[in-house]
Amino acid sequence: MDSNMCSSNTCSSNSVMKRTGETAPLIGELKPIYPPSVDGRAGCETWSVEFSPDGSYFAWSKGYGIVKLLVWPLEDMELNNDIQSMDTWNGKKEKTLDCGQTVWGLAFGPRTSKFASRTGGPSLSTPTVVLATGLSDGTIKIWEVETGGLRFNLHGHESVVRDLVFVPNGGLTLVSGSRDTTLRIWDLTKPDQQVHVLQGHTNWVYSCSVSPDCSMIASVCRGNPKVSLWSLRSYTFIRHLEGNRMCQVSCDFSPDGALLATAAYYNNWETSLWDPYTGEHLFLLQECFQCNFAILDNPIRAVRFSPEGLHLAFITEDKEIRIWELGQEEPLIESELRHFSCGLCCTFHPQGGVIATGTRDGHVKFWRVPRVVPSLTHLCRVALRYAISTHQVMALPIPSKLMDILTYRNFRQYYELRCSHHR
Length: 423
Hints:
This protein is mainly beta. It has one domain: Methylamine Dehydrogenase, Chain H, CATH 2.130.10. It is built from 5 helices and 31 strands. The strands form 7 sheets. Strands 1-3-30-29-28 form a 5-stranded antiparallel β-sheet, with no helix packed on it. The protein has a 5-stranded mixed β-sheet with strand order 2-27-26-25-24, with no helix packed on it. The chain has a 5-stranded mixed β-sheet with strand order 20-21-22-23-31. Strand 9 (130-135) and strand 10 form a beta hairpin. Residues 1-18, 80-90 and 117-126 have low confidence and may be disordered.
């Protein structure tokens, strides 16, 4: 690793983790060699972190227009045996991408979901893996990961490109969300062709996510309690998900596409789980009430599903990471209480076992995620929901209890996520 650009410090945890309530084990950290300025100026933040689809690269938006492409796992990091070793990636080297402006969004492509791979989604004309970077002036730069070379720029957005996501069909279709209030859909195999523009947001687009069956886009925008759903097939608006008075900041589809998680806050924070097919609000996860009284302004920054769809990760102002297992009373793991260097983003390794978080002071931290074997119920539900929608499930001649399980309606409608200090 280039010592002039960043350093990594690692620690390991060999303790056996309990079912819930453990302190998150930190296994590594990346730090910029230059400390952030103390005069309040922005620029050093890590706004986005991403793993490549095969898990062999990690992209770090390390502030001041620089993106580091690092070979994963890092040389001095102790990981579980089921994560591929450094020797597997001989010949690959870390790369520095100078984007010239603040990088707000990162996305590797092409990506595939289990749905796309099973149903024979479109195949690539080239196996090249690319990295898209969204910049402050609205430009999207497309880089070739293997060489670190710039392939081309995408122009059209008129302000900050806040979020990027590749459609998980094995192709090079990119969705971008911007402060210019639009979503844009790009075909990177034909960058000079007309771009599809989705309009209707009332403010900056904060976050967007694409369903695993490639049929829907979810998006949230600044200061708006509504979640927008768009058709990726007809490029039209579908519906708003309503019933939340708080401002939405993040969204993510579950790996089977049956759930949509959204994060919102207004002084305190909460996460909602929705059925994207029917628009029904399924259940709500709220901040610990006692923390709410102690910390008057505690925004949530990001929410992400784990690769197997069993866990949700949250980034909030008071803690760098929380991970919750669906239906549990307490967080599975959480970091210590913090009131500085708050987290801004997170991403799971595609093989599981590790989550990366980016912070306001430009750091990246890697946390070990406990490997919990999903129940047979969860595995069967996910296998079925990859293939059929909620409406199709409801048309099946099956008992109502089984139907509730398959549509995620077997959970309570409300959970309070009590922290370790207030249980």
